[in-house]
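job 3f2a | input accepted
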Amino acid sequence: MPIFESGDEIIFFMPIYPQLLRNDVKISISPEKLFTQAVEETKKVLGYSPENFYEIRCLENGLASEMMLTRHTGLFIPVTGRCVLSPKYVKFDEEKHRAYSTAEEGVKYLGDLHGPPFSYCTKNVTNDIQATLLKNWSIHYLNEAIKEVLRI
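job 3f2a | predicted structure (152 res):
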């Protein structure tokens, strides 16, 4: 997962497995429980406990669509579900690239055979604590949601 700095912001994109966004899929994984776990991990890694204020909004199928640490800082799924992310930054092998592709919906991206992945995108993340917390949460949350949907 590439992390960029743009002015005062830290930017990263977390690809979302497309099946998690389907309306016929129901996700019951608790984003709140995994947030608590991410807070503890961030504390261990950085030696600092982030603030526990947050707000989580979910889509109709139960997938978290926003994880806000403050009113203006967090992760979100853009309205289209896609962030423009150059294929050179997506370090997927061919099989995983196909699995995360949105090309079946007719989307082609920069001459690639695959569409851009659905992604969580950062919003006003300005320090390593916020970035680490959001990264930890999104990795755990998405992995658990994929396990639930694929019944792994």
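job 3f2a | The beta strands are 3-6, 9-16, 55-58, 64-68, 74-76, 118-123.
job 3f2a | closed
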